Amino acid sequence: MARKSYLVVQEDGNGDEHDMIHTENFVLIDTQQRIRGYYDGTQRENMNKILSDIDILRQEK
Predict the structure, then answer these.
(1) Which pLDDT tens digit goes with each residue over 35-44?
(2) What pLDDT is attached to residue 16?
(3) How many domains does the chain have?
(4) How far is CA 36 from CA 11, 16, 20, in A?
């Protein structure tokens, strides 16, 4: 899903059960599978922002 739907990584994997995606990026997806934000996991302010945005999404239920 990350590779094909949200284009998170730049390389193709082999698609087997051990195929993993390693990226510093986080993508916040809502319950309707819409992208709500991209965040760089190496930056503290981005991690604070995603936590805040998760709280906002929880309130939208």
Answers:
(1) 999 999 999 9
(2) 63
(3) 1
(4) 23, 28, 23
